[in-house]
Structure formats: C-alpha cells, structure tokens
C-alpha cells in the first residue's frame, strides 16, 4: 500500500508553479471582499486640515484662564478665518481650527456669558486638536497589494476620493458532486440516497475565501461521463473541486478520470478526517486548471476546504492573509490520543485572562457535521501523540 502523504507535502504539490491571476479595474462600490492587485498611495492628507476633536472653544493656549470674547462660530465644513488676538472661537467637532488657535477646550469646562466665554487655566497647546495628516500623509502607502478590501479598507480608499481600484480577478471554481446516491434538496430520497450537503457548504466557503463558483455539476457513477464532465469543468474554471469519487471503490471514478485527462500529483493523506483526497492538474485551452478532489464525507470536505482550498485561492489572489490560517497556542480542555494520522479536531477557542483554552466537541466522528457549525478552530494533534488536559496544543483559527 502506498505511503500516506503529509499535509505539508500536499500543500507544496498543490501550490507548486502557481501564479496570481490577472488584475481588473472595478468600481470601489463593487470591490467589497476583493483583493488589491497593486499598492495604493495616498493622494491626500487625512485629516486634510487641523480640526477639533469635540464641541468646545478654540483659543491660544497663552489665553487660557481668561474671559475671552467669542469672535466667530465654526461648524464642520465652514471655512475658518484667522483668530483675532485675545479672543476664542465657538467650534464644533470636525470644525477647522482657525489660524492662530492652538488648542480646544471642551464646552463642559467653559462658562458662557453672552458673547464672552470664561475658559479654565493650564490648557496645553494641541489639546483636543486632530492634526493634519495624523492618520495618513500624502505619498504614504495607503494599502498594499494583497489586501482584502473589507469595511475599514474600503473606507480608507473612499477617504482618498478613490472611485476605481485594481483588484485580482476572482478565481473561477467548478464544483462537482459525484455519486448516484447524492440528491439535491427538494427531491424525494430513494433508499440509500442522501441529500447534497457538500454543495451549499463548499460554495459558501469558496465565496468567503474570495472565489467565484461558476458551475455546479452533478456527476453520475459512470467513467465516461466523469471524464467528459471533468474536461468541461477544466475549460470553465481555474480550479475544479469535486466531492466523493476519490476513494478505492468500484464506483469511484474521479481518480482514474483525472489520471486519464491530466496529472495526479498526490492521493491519500495522513490526516483525520479526510484521508481520501486527490490533488492534480487538468489541461485546458488556456493552460491548466488545478484539481482538488475532496472526500464525500461532509466533515472531511469541510476540513479539506480550510486546509487546501483556502491557501490555493489565496495564492491565486496573491493574498498573504489567505495563504495560511492564523495559529494560536491554547491550553487543551480535553484529553486524546492519535494513531498514525494527524488529527484536526473541531474545537471552540475560549479566551480567558489566563490565555486561550480549546474545548473539543465530545463526538469527533467524521459524520457529525453539526460540530462544524460552532467550531472556530482546528486543534492539530500530531500522529502517535498523547494529549492530556492542560497540555499546550497548536490550533488553526477559522477566521472567515
């Protein structure tokens, strides 16, 4: 029997000779979740002028402790005029600091009497002023290539007046479900059939990883049709993902079809769950598509998607944030032992004053998909290991 491959070797085979996809220019309003293809430099200081951090009174610090005439009123968006010596200005949050003023006193500390205001003493220069360029300075790198454009990054770009942005094209994925026993929800189940839980689960994961699922295909237990559908999927997509059909059964045709059409780089992994997994390449008119054959077991597919599809999509997007899962060392809230395969246990990480604690779900059977709903990490238990409660374990944070 062939030796089982290690996860690291499988990833190396999967990501070998990967090149980022081309870029495209799109509207910022269409860019949520997309990945920057180029660095973006700041064209403006942020803020663009000294402004007040609160409602209050702008004055010269040397005039603190005096009763000062109020010489102007400055709301946000109003052009300030130079502050007359020996006066103060009524100012509101975001209002421009008038030339000559160097501090702001919050309104709660000021006694207003008609057109004059008594301000407290010992107000330091710069107090309650947001200096020009405090957040961003013109010419600085605003965002680097590979950044995923989520809420704050989109706001950062909009603050520069950006309306269009260069992003990586989304990897196109063809998602194939194999097996006559797999039925789409909504259809009646015959004896021995199962509803297709992998398809919606993997589609959502792939979209969260930054891919575009361009086709959803059901593949019957027939070798010729498996070959034809794999070939068509390779023409439609950058990545072809299948579920099921990669084991050793007489009706498991995907592995043989892949070997006929293209190249099988690796088959069967030393992991639990998810041993039957195929990685390879399928030729197409544009070059080749990467192939990932996940097990039909939904829990194994879930684990395999995080371990292999996420870094593959990250490499195609040239996104360091997607290249690997964040690692957290946690205190084991469980005891376990492993055999010859590395175990990826579904756990909940809880963060306490004493540090992170990993609580494992009692039933780690690969058929229990319900544990994946609330799991927020995988505890990685090496082969042939004994873990006692309280031991330190390496965990992969499921951050998307």
Automatic annotation (TrEMBL):
The keyword Metal-binding applies. Keywords: Magnesium, Metal-binding, Molybdenum, Molybdenum cofactor biosynthesis, Transferase. Pfam families: MoCF_biosynth, MoeA_C, MoeA_N. Residues 174-315 form the MoaB/Mog domain. Its EC number is 2.10.1.1. It comes from the Bacteria. It catalyses: adenylyl-molybdopterin + molybdate = Mo-molybdopterin + AMP + H(+). Pathway: Cofactor biosynthesis; molybdopterin biosynthesis. PROSITE patterns: MOCF_BIOSYNTHESIS_2. NCBIfam families: Glp_gephyrin, molyb_syn. Catalyzes the insertion of molybdate into adenylated molybdopterin with the concomitant release of AMP. Belongs to the MoeA family. This is Molybdopterin molybdenumtransferase. It comes from Halomonas llamarensis.
């Amino acid at each position: 029997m062939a030796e089982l491959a290690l996860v690291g070797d499988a990833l190396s085979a999967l990501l070998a000779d990967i090149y980022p996809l081309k870029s495209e220019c799109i509207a910022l309003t269409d860019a949520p979740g997309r990945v920057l293809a180029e660095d973006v430099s700041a064209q403006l200081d942020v803020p663009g002028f000294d402004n007040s951090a609160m409602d209050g009174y702008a004055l010269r610090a040397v005039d603190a402790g005096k009763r000062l005439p109020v010489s102007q009123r400055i709301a946000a968006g109003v052009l300030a005029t130079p502050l007359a010596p020996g006066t103060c200005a009524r100012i509101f949050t975001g209002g421009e600091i008038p030339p000559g003023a160097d501090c702001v006193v919050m309104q709660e500390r000021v006694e207003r009497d008609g057109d004059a205001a008594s301000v407290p003493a010992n107000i330091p220069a710069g107090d309650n002023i947001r200096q020009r360029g405090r957040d961003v300075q013109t010419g600085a790198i605003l965002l680097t290539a590979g950044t995923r454009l989520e809420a704050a990054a989109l706001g950062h770009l909009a603050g520069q007046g950006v309306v269009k942005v260069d992003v990586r094209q989304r990897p196109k994925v063809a998602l194939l479900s194999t097996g006559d026993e797999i039925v789409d929800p909504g259809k009646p189940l015959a004896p021995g059939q199962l509803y297709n839980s992998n398809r919606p689960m993997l589609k959502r994961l792939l979209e969260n990883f930054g891919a575009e699922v361009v086709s959803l295909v059901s593949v019957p237990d027939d070798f010729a049709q498996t070959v034809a559908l794999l070939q068509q999927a390779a023409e439609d997509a950058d990545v072809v993902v299948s579920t099921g059909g990669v084991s050793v059964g007489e009706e498991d045709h995907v592995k043989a079809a892949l070997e006929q059409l293209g190249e099988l780089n690796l088959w069967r992994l030393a992991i639990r769950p998810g041993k039957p997994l195929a990685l390879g390449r399928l030729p197409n008119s544009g070059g080749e598509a990467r192939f990932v054959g996940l097990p039909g077991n939904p829990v194994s597919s879930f684990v395999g998607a995080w371990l292999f599809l996420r870094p593959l999509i990250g490499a195609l997007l040239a996104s360091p944030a997607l290249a690997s899962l964040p690692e957290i060392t946690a205190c084991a809230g469980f005891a376990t032992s492993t055999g010859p395969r590395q175990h990826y246990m579904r756990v909940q990480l809880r963060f306490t004053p004493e540090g992170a604690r990993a609580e494992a779900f009692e039933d780690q059977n690969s058929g229990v998909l319900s544990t994946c709903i609330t799991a927020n990490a995988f505890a990685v238990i090496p082969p042939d290991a004994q873990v006692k409660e309280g031991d330190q374990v390496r965990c992969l944070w499921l951050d998307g």
